[in-house]
Write a structure and sequence with these properties.
This protein has 538 residues and is mainly beta. Helices cover 11% and strands 31% of the residues. The strands form eight sheets. It has a five-stranded antiparallel β-sheet with strand order 17-18-19-20-21, with no helix packed on it.
């Protein structure tokens, strides 16, 4: 099905108004007819609601998983859109997750492009606790064991409870090429805004992102945010934002939803100021068309923002719109390109609140949909690598990292801990310590929790133990036990002479010969001298 372009009158009118259209390639914006049947995958065999889709970006076969919410299960499809009947029970698996509570709800699914591990995000039955599970790749039966290296020190390794962050509804997630996990969703407040959480590969919060690993955005004018679809823009090296797709609406007026996209800097957690001035783009109406939800978006290296939006009025269609990037708040209503395609008859895209888009290695985009029988299916659009829709080209973005706390670790352990986050050991200084065992780290610089660029050096002070302590005195001769066993100082000789004179005086008073007293007192002198090392520190 070819794209149905808008009438040439619109272009002529735009040119007359002085609008500069970018050199934009819209050929990708079409139905991928080679996928499934005319761009629509095989439907699920049961009526179900889609929670999320995920494609394994590291798999050239474009294996796709869809998380179904009622009952909780996953279905696996091949690159042609067919159900993979070699997986689980005829393509379905209901025991893939490892939740201890059968009532847990799973709402988001994403795949690590490096390890191929699955990440699922959900909420507990009390609806106030969210959790994250990381699972090893499912076996042929559909069972996936917990990855115990994730949150390894937690109560249940492989499972992370989000005890200080709560999402008030559906959630979405993505795993970037550097294996950071991003989770997005409404924040649960009365006037909900967006919450975006960044988790390191080991299950710890990335404290260099936002505030303690948590960022967000509150839509203007007191509007409510809803939306969970995350687009990882890492295919573009110059603008590696995280894009979150959804809609906003006035409080208590959910029927007046407006399509919106939020762009967040993946390193700092700050809204991208080059994305409509404040990181928020709301495409309510352009050229008389009203948009209800975005289905995919990207910022290209060639300097364009590209978005595909569902048109909420008239015949079900999808509209492609482009803007120049950087985009200032004053010119966002000036699109640089348009195009429109017809959604196949009987198919509803994003019917359950989110299109949950995923990009395949060839650049095509898969969207959640429901057919006329309310069965879940995927709808495929063609792709163009020049627009950055090629996930296979995703690049690792080197953000600053939080310096780990290595005080108290051995030098080897500290080196490993620093290397694991992309840092190196700098200058090593050896220092004595009466409290830190030899070989352990006494202090570090930069300190734990500080932000450092990848490859930065952390200087360490390593304990040599309590090397300041002196030797104990030996019994016997009057000179035993002097400092360090070396030559006596003038002070030592003076003390010994004074003690000898005192003993002689005492012996004379007692009528005892001095020589005998001296012989009898040698051990006492040695003992006193050793037990009271009063010369130390003088």
């Amino acid at each position: 099905m070819k794209a149905i372009l808008r009438p040439a009158v619109a272009l002529v009118a735009a040119l007359a108004a002085g609008i500069a259209y970018a050199a934009f390639n819209s050929n990708w914006f079409d139905v991928l007819t080679s996928y499934g049947t005319n761009g629509v995958s095989a439907p699920t065999s049961i009526v179900n609601l889609t929670a999320a889709n995920a494609v394994d970006e590291g798999d050239s076969n474009n294996t796709t998983y869809t998380l179904l919410s009622a009952p909780v299960s996953i279905v696996r499809r091949t690159s042609t859109g067919a159900i993979d009947t070699s997986f689980g029970a005829s393509g379905y698996a209901t025991s893939f997750e490892n939740s201890a509570n059968a009532a847990d709800q799973f709402l988001a699914l994403c795949i690590d492009p490096v390890t191929h591990y699955l990440v699922v995000v959900g909420t507990s039955p009390d609806s106030v606790t969210n959790f994250v599970e990381r699972l090893l790749p499912p076996d042929a039966s559909g069972v996936a064991a917990l990855d115990t290296s994730f949150n390894a020190q937690g109560k249940t390794p492989g499972v992370l409870l989000l005890e200080t962050v709560y999402f008030g509804g559906n959630m979405g997630c993505t795993v970037t090429p550097e294996e950071s996990i991003f989770i997005a969703g409404p924040n649960g407040a009365a006037i909900a805004g967006l919450t975006l959480l960044k988790i390191n590969a080991d299950g710890t919060a990335d404290t260099t992102f936002g505030s303690g690993g948590v960022s967000g955005f509150q839509p203007p004018n007191g509007h409510v945010w809803e939306g969970t679809a995350i687009e990882d823009n890492s295919a573009q090296s110059t603008v590696p934002d995280i894009l979150i797709l959804g809609d906003t609406y006035p409080m208590q007026s959910s029927g007046a939803a407006t399509a919106a996209v939020i762009a967040i800097n993946r390193c700092t957690g700050a809204p991208d100021p080059n994305f409509n001035g404040n990181g928020f783009l709301s495409a309510s109406m352009i050229d008389g068309l009203t948009f209800s939800a975005p289905i995919t978006a990207a910022i290209t290296d060639s300097g364009e923002i590209v978005g595909a939006f569902i048109v909420s009025t008239g015949t079900p269609t999808v509209d492609l719109i482009g803007w120049n990037y950087p985009l200032t708040a004053s010119d966002w209503l000036t699109p640089t390109a348009q195009g429109m395609l017809q959604i196949p008859s009987g198919l509803t895209v994003g019917a359950v609140g989110a299109a949950s888009p995923v990009r395949q290695s060839g650049g095509s985009v898969l969207l959640s949909a429901q057919d006329s029988s309310n069965q879940q299916a995927l709808f495929a659009l063609t792709g163009d690598p020049t627009l950055g829709f090629t996930v296979g080209a995703a690049s690792v973005v080197k953000c600053n990292v939080a310096v780990p706390n290595v005080v108290g670790l051995t030098q080897t352990e500290a080196t490993t801990a620093l290397n694991n986050v992309g840092l190196v050991v700098g200058t090593v200084t050896m220092k004595s310590s009466a409290t830190v065992p030899a070989g352990d780290v006494i202090s570090q610089n930069p300190f734990a929790g500080q932000s450092a660029a990848p490859g930065s050096a952390v200087n360490l002070a390593i304990s040599t133990g309590n090397t300041a302590s002196g030797g104990s005195g030996g019994g016997g001769g009057g000179g035993g036990g002097h400092h360090g066993g070396g030559a006596m100082t003038p002070l030592d000789l003076g003390v010994i002479l004074l003690l000898a004179l005192l003993r002689a005086a005492s012996a004379a008073l007692d009528g005892v010969r001095p020589g005998r007293s001296a012989r009898a007192s040698r051990g006492g002198l040695s003992a006193v001298h050793a037990s009271k090392p009063y010369w130390r520190g003088r």
